[in-house]
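Hi U.,

Before I forget, here's the chain from the pilot set. I'm dumping it here mostly so it's searchable later in email.
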Amino acid sequence: MKFDFEELPEQDRYRLLSNFVGPRPIALVTTVDEHGCNNAAPMSFFNVFSHDPPLLILGMQSRPDGTPKDTVANIRRAGEFVVHMVDMAIAKQMIITGINFPSDVDEIAFAGLTSIPSTKVGASLIKESPCAMECRASQILDYGRRVIVIGEVVQMHVHDDCIDENGRYVRPEVYQPIARLHADNYIVADNQFELKKPSDLLQLEAWAVSGPNR
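Structure:
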């Protein structure tokens, strides 16, 4: 089947892209409004795009009536936010924060999560998240109803049990983030395997004959 994205309706483009580009990591993003109220919202149009400088990118849609969502409004005003990774321990709470609450509702507290102060930004950290990244907005790009936020990571917090004693490598038996597939389907990184590229031509020839092993 072929799909002409220059002619395809918006919802069909979304369905195809989100169904086939996956799994997509989930960013549970916290911000704070002008009254000091916490906001939290999950996003699966998200990824890390650079380590030097350390950049994350978020893609957010405005509401159907064209008004900006709280996360976008708060980032535009404050220029900062925190991205939290999500594991099975907080999966249900993450879904709760995705409900369209009024702006004065603290989604962190409503979901039963714990907010603690960040180190360098005003938005709160979620204590239960295995990994959190404090970010300052580097660029905000507008594409119609879509807003692309490029954030620079200025501080990272990782649960001690998720990383080795040298602070270099993740412990895959502990850190198992979930990611979104299509519609309401998710996947958890609990079945990991190594797949190393050959280091030289001789190894490549042997690898080609035997095939990669899981």
